[in-house]
Design brief:
There is one protein chain. This protein is an alpha/beta fold and 512 residues long. It folds into three domains: 4-239, P-loop containing nucleotide triphosphate hydrolases (Rossmann fold, 3-Layer(aba) Sandwich), CATH 3.40.50; 245-336 and 420-512, P-loop containing nucleotide triphosphate hydrolases (Rossmann fold), CATH 3.40.50.300; 352-410, no CATH class. It is built from 16 helices and 24 strands. It has helices at 44-51, 74-79, 97-102, 116-130, 145-158, 175-190, 202-208, 231-239, 299-306, 329-334, 355-360, 375-388, 404-416, 434-449, 461-467, 491-498, and strands spanning 4-13, 18-28, 33-38, 59-64, 67-69, 82-85, 108-109, 113-114, 163-167, 194-198, 211-216, 219-225, 257-266, 276-284, 288-292, 314-319, 322-323, 337-340, 368-369, 372-373, 422-426, 453-458, 470-475, 478-484. The strands form six sheets. A six-stranded mixed sheet has the order 6-9-10-3-11-12, sandwiched between helices. Strand 11 and strand 12 (219-225) form a beta hairpin.
């Protein structure tokens, strides 16, 4: 008898005409790590949201421990011992680990007042029980991304969950943090927990899970013991063909410096140390310069400075030999600098606006006559981009109804259509499936070959090592390592720099 069983689950979204789940059967055994994989839009996250009560199915039944369960909301799921760690952390940075953990389920004194001592005692007890080495009184804002991931797990263990759903848990972790997380998951199963992990990283499926369910276009297409299937077969099942991307970087044709940062420092009031400290880097034409690091170590600040979203910094920014320091994002875009942001939902798009509107927002002035938009031309322009970039979705629907992969393709199409000489990519494939990622990588290498300078900011080491010609590593706002990307450069070595275990510039200046 399956510990978790979902029978005939169907979910249809009439507003976007999407059938997310079509008569899905899904089973998980007790005390196993079960991987759920599929392309963006395959229906796996919707299925898990139904299990956790964030969505209601149109048809189908759910059985927990052999008994039929009605799960109408997350409280129902919690009462059944089901917890979920979402892809985007749901933590309040200003709160402590304890405050985040007990939020919504706080112990009370006299039924009214928050009992802080009892809360901290309870959270400390959970940590000791499951072997988490964290300080319950520490503020979340001071934690590493890997520690934040553990706090999310502690939150659901505090609620006594024994069925844990993890949605893309390793998307922003270093290699070392991933190994530590997997050790934690295996320890939890040894203690009787059952874990469902949604992931796009097929190597992780092989590493951590006992079984894997593959979904495609809203349906389950295969269930396999992971020892019996390799990554190539998994990718074929996911997309209908084998997609294991092989990076083919031709020799770099670096000609001139297109973008340069000189001793850039960003400080924040109340912080003891700068967010960025004396950062120097150069992006050449025909080069991909990779900036690697763990979240909270300066990646966001680099992204903000080079795109004009942060103009309060010390140092200089140079574009094609001209000082463009402290220019706004609009001024930088007029100079020919394009930007594919990490936050595709807020920075990269307006979710309520149509796909067409999102495509033309950067150059809509070219479609105006007397202040009136030439509708026919904009439609043909957007249609041509849709076909060229293989975007699935009606041009007239809100872009927010598209899958993450298709939203990213819309942003990519819009930015590359500007024919810029320098493009900033930040976490370009975060949360995307293998097919969407392959498409993005092909486009990055295509524009590199055309002589465009690319600044690639990413915490994904496979991505950085596959695409970058030169690599720099940030730790606590400083460049701690800089290397040409060659065969001697391993994920483990770069990971050590990302964790602050190595520092080539601790005593001297950083070299451009």
């Amino acid at each position: 008898m399956a510990y978790v069983r979902m029978d005939g689950i169907t979910k249809f979204y009439p507003e976007s005409n999407v059938l997310a789940n079509k008569s899905v059967d899904f089973e998980v055994e007790q005390i196993e790590i079960h991987a759920l994989v599929g392309e963006n839009g395959a229906g796996k996250t919707t299925l898990m949201k139904i299990l956790y009560g964030l969505e209601l199915p149109d048809q189908g039944k759910i059985f927990i421990r052999g008994r039929e369960a009605e799960i109408r909301n997350p409280l129902d799921a919690n009462s059944l011992g089901i917890g979920m760690v979402h892809q985007h952390f749901r933590l309040i940075p200003q709160f402590t680990i304890t405050e985040n953990t007990v939020l919504g389920n706080e112990p009370r004194r006299k039924g009214i007042f928050f009992d802080r001592d009892k809360a901290e005692q309870s959270v400390r007890g959970v940590m000791e029980e499951y072997g988490f080495d964290l300080d319950p009184g520490q503020k979340v804002s001071s934690l590493t991304v890997g520690q934040m991931q553990l706090v999310e797990i502690i939150k659901i263990l505090y609620r006594r969950a024994d069925i844990l759903i993890l949605d893309e848990p390793t998307s922003v972790l270093t290699e070392q943090q991933i190994h530590k997380l997997f050790d934690t998951l295996e320890k939890l199963t040894d203690m009787g927990k059952t874990i469902i992990i949604i992931t796009h990283k097929l190597g992780e499926v092989k590493t951590v899970s006992q079984r894997v369910t593959v979904m495609r276009k809203g349906e389950v297409v295969a269930v396999r013991d992971t020892v019996d299937v390799d990554e190539k077969e998994l990718s074929r099942l996911m997309v209908g063909k084998s997609v294991i991307f092989q990076f083919k970087r031709e020799p770099m044709k670096a000609d001139k410096v297109v973008l340069e940062l000189q001793n850039v420092t960003v400080e924040e009031k109340g912080k003891e140390s700068p967010l960025l400290e004396n950062v120097n880097l150069k992006v050449h034409t025909g080069e991909v310069l990779g900036v690697a690091g763990v979240g909270g170590n300066g990646l966001q600040e680099i992204e903000d400075v080079v795109t004009g979203l942060c103009t309060t910094y010390e140092g200089r920014m140079i574009h094609l030999g001209e000082d463009i320091s402290h220019r706004s994002s609009m001024e930088l875009r007029k100079r020919g600098m394009a930007y594919v942001p990490a936050d595709r939902l807020c920075r990269g798009s307006c979710l309520e606006s149509s796909v067409l509107e999102n495509m033309i927002v950067a150059n809509h002035h070219s479609f105006l006559t007397g202040g009136v938009l030439r509708q026919g031309e904009t439609f043909e322009y957007a249609k041509e981009l849709t076909e060229r970039y293989s975007i699935s979705g009606d041009l007239r629907v809100p872009i927010g109804t598209l899958s993450g992969g298709n939203i990213q393709k819309v942003i990519l199409a819009r930015e590359l259509a500007l024919k810029s000489d320098c493009i900033v990519f930040s976490e370009p494939t975060w949360g995307l499936d293998v097919a969407s990622s392959e498409f993005i990588y092909e486009k990055i290498l295509e524009i590199r070959k055309a002589g465009v300078g690319v600044l690639l900011i990413s915490s994904n080491l496979d991505e950085i090592l596959g695409l970058a010609d030169t690599l720099i590593v940030l730790y606590r706002g400083r460049i701690v390592g800089q290397f040409p990307n060659n065969q001697d450069l391993s994920k483990e070595l770069v990971g050590e720099y990302m964790m602050g275990l190595r520092d080539d510039f601790s005593q001297g200046e950083q070299h451009a």
